[in-house]
Amino acid sequence: MADVHDIETRSYNMSQIKGKDTKPEILVRKFLHAHGFRYSLHGKKLPGKPDLVLRKYNTIIDVRGCFWHLHAGCKYGDQVTTPSEKITSRRKTAVERDKVKIAEWKDAGWDVIVIWAECELEPKRKYSEKREVTLNNLLNKLKE
Ligand SMILES: [Zn+2]
Question: The pTM is what?
Fold first, then answer.
């Protein structure tokens, strides 16, 4: 059974490779919008085109897929291995890019909040307690 789940997870993650307007991102956007936050998407003037930019709060939100961005210690992240060298190297490249992006954003004075798409938002579930917690934490961080 575990294998079946892994395959499903993997194929789901594969479908997220383009990384723009993914379901997890849309969940975050809808939540923020419903709470009165306004943001811009894929800030083109900023390095790495961040997913969500909240200028008023000086904050960038980076929604990362656990699989592709090798979320550490995560059952959807670095605990999922693949025999494909191409995919493995792609994941490593993504992690390197993430480090550069975060450093650039922080250097430019932005606060950065990372949200892990699969384990923190559980996008495949209709209702997710983890998602509620994640989004409420996000709200609290923005209000700080
Ligand atoms: Zn994760």
Answer: 0.84
